[in-house]
Amino acid sequence: KKIGLLIESMNDLTIDGQGSRLLFEGDMMALGILHSKNITIKNLTWDFKVPTTSEMSVKDFNLEELWIDYLIPSCMPYQIEGNDLIWLSEKDSQGNYYWIEKNDHRNYGIQVNYPQVTMGRSYYTEDSPFRNVSHIEEIEANHLRFYYQQMPKIKPIIGMNYQFLSNAQRPT
Q1: For the chain, how are helix, strand and coil distributed in percent, rounded to 5?
Q2: Are 46 and 23 in contact (CB under 8 A)?
Q3: Strands (E), 9-132
Q4: What's the pTM?
């Protein structure tokens, strides 16, 4: 496994990041603590250059014309291939992607966070916004319009956020 910060066979260790932020790249586990006791990590945050959880938020929709506009965070590269959205990681030093996923990833469910509540809700992938897509149009960078043969089962709400991850496979 690829681990960004590994603490192994250590005891009574305190790491004070003093406000540091670690930015990880690629498909890896951020932190591993193995065979250790009394480990304290404080004042340290981390993030990923391209998270393996892809997401998109509803910007606008028209139920009669059967389209929904989605915004994708700028840190999430993608390609449109026909009626599919291909999510891309950053590239390694040889120019290869660490990972590539399609639509709602290889998963059994999707997570939806609603703007008016603090908790999200899980749905099966058959309720995915990638079902019954007739075509995808890029309005501008990171602003996509999905046209549908019929609207998705989950009623769109401005600001709702879909999250897709590949928990069926756990490489790290």
Answers
A1: 0, 55, 45
A2: yes
A3: 11-24, 29-34, 37-48, 54-62, 67-71, 78-81, 84-88, 100-102, 109-113, 120-124
A4: 0.83
Residues of the chain with pLDDT > 70: what percent? 95
pLDDT digits (tens, 9 = 90+) for 2-45: 899 999 999 999 999 999 999 998 878 899 999 999 999 999 99
| Residue 127, SS3 per DSSP | helix
Nearest to 40 by CA among 62, 61, 56, 17: 17
Place of tokens 């469910």: 109
Task: Tell which wins on pLDDT, 46 or 106.
Answer: 46
Phi, psi dihedral angles at 98 (to 5 degrees): -65, -40
Here the tokens at position 51 are 């998270």
Token readout for 133 is: 């897509």
Q: In which order are the strands placed within the sheet that holds 109-113? A: 120-124, 109-113, 161-164, 54-62, 67-71, 143-148, 133-140
Give tens-digit pLDDT for 98-136. 889 999 887 777 899 999 887 788 888 888 999 999 999
The set of long-range contacts for 120-123, using a CB threshold of 8 Å and a minimum separation of 24, is 120/163, 123/153, 123/154
Q: Which of 51, 4, 13 is nearest to 32 (CA)?
A: 4
